Amino acid sequence: MKVQYDKEVDAAYILLSNLKPDGAIEISEGVNLDVTDKDEIVGIEILNASKRFPLDTLFKYEFENYQV
Q: Which pTM was predicted?
């Protein structure tokens, strides 16, 4: 799992897999799942991230080279 944050647009992205996304599903306002054509979750996009939770918690559980 890899976590990225873009402060210019206040968006966080949690990468869960190295698979190539084929589309996105909005699961709530400002939260989208990137999925493959087989509905496997590739990543999670969180808009207005700093307003949703403290950003230091976002990076607390980051794991590299984790494959789903």
A: 0.81
